[in-house]
Amino acid sequence: MVEVRAFRGIRYNKERVELADVVAPPYDVITDEEREELYRRHDKNIVRLILGKGYSTDDESNNKYTRAAETFKTWLDEGVMVEDPEPSLYLYEEEYEIGGQRKRMRGFIALVRLVDFEEGTILPHEETLLGPKADRLKLRRTTRANFSQIFTFYSDPGGAVERLLEPSSGPEAELADRDGVVHRLWRVADPDVIAGVAELMKDKKLFIADGHHRYETALALRDEMKEEGFDYVMMYITNMDSGGLSILPAHRIVTNIEYDRDAFFQGIGRHFQVEEMERDGDGGMEKMLERMEGAGSGHIFGLFLEGKYYTLTLRDPGVMDQRIRDRSKAWRRLDVTILHTLILEDVLGIEEDERHIRYEIDPWKAVKTAWRMGVQMVFFLNPTRVSQVRDVALAGEKMPGKATYFYPKLLSGLVMRKIE
Question: Taking 80 as the threshold, does the pLDDT of residue 392 lie above it?
């Protein structure tokens, strides 16, 4: 059972700061350069809490985690941040443009009781690493706070929860980020609405989109601290059936390999129909992407090789059933799985690691990078569908690396929570 509850959120005081100056992207997508820019943007930016700087003089009593805790307390004491007077849910909407289409993702922020993955009500889709978990563990243990929300989705074709949370007035907060995404936030304090949402969510399953490291950290702290407050974690929850959630593909830039052109095309020709795109400025790229977009349920990949564009269409998906027998059909039918198995491994003889593969979300940037680096080839993928992530998670499996880039990202600093 999924247990959802309201909480007294902590938010920036709009009388003290401009919200756009103090929020930040999720900690794990902030580069070193972006962190410096956020530090310069405002001395109260949330980055000082979620991704503080470390120094050579740091020790057990003075480090980026203790500084985050002290800074958080100071900002609360000074009224830079204030705690809402009553338990609430927080309706969070993001309006954005993708592929020439305007979309809207709407969900809500709440506390959710932690459960082990084995219970099958909150499910992961990707592997985690020890380093990020250790970092998040130290931060949360020291600050006793949630500064950002874990990003989850559920299935509700009828949209019952969304109807309950439909706002009747304008948002309490609204801002546009650097990518042009418009973020809006409403506070929902009506006890009847909160109770209705909690009741409707009981029989749902939650699938983690972003925040696997933070969720596993929360589980570890729950077992370590044995305090009621640590039994819950702050989550953003959105309906996958509303059409607002997008996944972007991570295109593969292949480098540091030796290959024979004729042997390469002979190899991919065993399972793929290869079509060369006409060359007309950027027309080859546009035609390739157009063909890929029209793939429907088929499996079509793009290829940039030696200045030319191609499409690679898988003839028979059943070949994956023969090639891989110890995985679910949902996992075998992922485009990422097909590309890595039938082309990168079988034809090029390479594994997925940083020696040979770089990743780029923007296809145009991928080609520019290839030209700049003198890279041999770029493979383009269609996005993984949200339903595929759900099906792989339900099968008890994890997605291959770099199979998903959920978009839009959630801002850190809109709502926070003290663990108490």
Answer: yes
**Residue entry with tokens 């120094």:** 55
**Global pTM value:** 0.94
Classify 393 in phi/psi space as left (phi over 0), alpha (psi -120 to 50) or beta: alpha
DSSP letter for 99, please. T
| Backbone angles phi and psi of 49, in degrees to 5 | -100, -45
- Above pLDDT 70, what percent of the chain? 99
AA letter at 100: G
Token pair recorded at residue 101: 């289409």
Residues 260 and 301 in one domain: yes
Residue 307: what pLDDT?
Answer: 86
In a domain, 395, yes or no: no
Token pair 């299935």: residue: 155
- Alpha-carbon gap, residue 354 to 142, rounded angstroms: 33
For the CA atoms of 348, 351, 354, 357, what is the dihedral angle to 10 degrees?
40
**What is the pLDDT, as a whole number, of residue 187?**
98
270-274: average pLDDT: 96
pLDDT at 267: 96
> By C-alpha distance, which of 167, 149, 168, 156 is closest to 110?
149
Tokens of 230: 């640590």
Same domain for 260 and 224: no
**The domain that contains 368 carries what CATH number?**
3.30.1760
Claim to verify: residue 15 and residue 56 sit in the same structural domain: yes
Residue 392 lies inside a defined structural domain of this protein:
no
Tell whether 105 is covered by a domain: yes
287 and 197 together in one domain: no
Inter-residue contact 283 to 315 (CB < 8 Å)? no
Q: What pLDDT, on the 0 to 100 scale, is given for residue 369?
A: 87
User: Which ranges in 191-271 belong to alpha helices (H)?
Assistant: 191-201, 212-225, 261-268
410: exposed, middle or buried (C-beta count within 10 Å: 0-12, 13-18, 19+)? Answer: buried
